[in-house]
Design goal:
The strands form 2 sheets. A 3-stranded mixed sheet has the order 2-1-6, covered by helices on one side. Strands 4-3-5 form a 3-stranded antiparallel sheet, with no helix packed on it. It is elongated. The protein contains 2 helices and 6 strands; from the N terminus they run αβαβββββ. With about 120 residues, the chain is an alpha+beta fold. A hairpin with a 4-residue loop joins β3 and β4. α1 packs across α2. The protein has a single domain, classed as hypothetical protein PF0899 fold, CATH 3.30.2320.
Length: about 120
């Protein structure tokens, strides 16, 4: 379950960033997770609750934005978003493409918290 180490890293990064911004407690972490990232959302949510105990992120919400797979179609010369990660074919013309433009993300994009008094 690599989601546990991912959750730990997210919390460490968030707490470090929060302290630099003068936040004493985190209320939410916003992350973007791509369909090809290999992260199981439910496992990450469970692990997040475990690793936040005793930290400034305890009780914070983990808000996940799912990022679909986007490929570049060489035939259409356009980016196309796929309904499912497989097969990697243009939904318009059916051409195969391995040129992935989005869907591999695993990013901490924003924090919400309470400032120090």
């Amino acid at each position: 379950m690599h989601e546990l180490s991912i959750a730990q890293n997210l919390v460490e990064l968030a707490v470090e960033s929060a302290q630099a911004q003068g936040l004493r407690r985190l209320t939410a972490l916003h992350v973007r997770i791509g369909a090809l990232s290999g992260v199981v959302k439910e496992a990450l949510l469970f692990a997040f609750d475990v690793v936040t105990e005793g930290t400034p992120a305890q009780g914070a919400a983990l808000i996940i934005e799912d990022v679909p797979v986007t490929i570049f179609c060489p035939s259409c010369q356009a980016e196309r978003t796929l309904d499912a990660p497989v097969p990697m074919r243009c939904p318009e013309c059916g051409t195969r493409s391995g040129d992935v433009r989005a869907g591999r993300e695993l990013e901490l994009v924003a924090l919400e918290g309470v400032e120090e008094a």
